[in-house]
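seq:
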Amino acid sequence: MDAALKEQLVERFRRYLDGSDIDHGDSMSDAEAIDLYTLFTELAALKNEVKLESRQVKNALDFSGEMIEGLRQNNLQLGAELSRRRQEEDEARQAAEQPLLLAILELRDRLQAALGSLKAFRPGVIAGRKTRRFLTSMDEGLEIGLRRLDEMLRNYQVRALDPVGARADPETMTVTSIEHHKDQDNGVVLEEVRQGFLRGAQVLRLAEVIVNKHESKT
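struct:
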């Protein structure tokens, strides 16, 4: 329906309610008299149109809500997929880096063994100044090398186990020997023969340990 016609009908209805268009004898012509049937018909049509528009707005809101919910579900699925892919990438990267880290640990073992042997070495009385200076330089060089390797391992979140004095743990340790000490608890680690290491919460290399075990009375 035309907007101007709607406005005209509403204005005429307003005047009717205000009493401005009430018939007072011959003051109002028949052409100007209000056709109540036409007025109520137009009002009914207007009411139906408002209902239709309201229904369309509700449908649009429902559709928008469904779209928003769909987008939210898609975002959740996308976030879960990204998290899963990141985890897979991290696992693949760690698996690729593991042989390198194990090789670094082997090199560290050798440097540490060489440093231990050097510190235990006692040159004879006849050893000259050059020999002592050479031994001191070797000692310093090995210590620097060990510190560099330890720093590299820390960058990869690798840390050494500290099993001595703790109970033997088959998930992080391998028992290579058993000794019998009555003054120590049963199952306690007495010595670490080969260092074990963790990377984050995962075992990178098992520790090789000597465990205490009480002798049976039989």
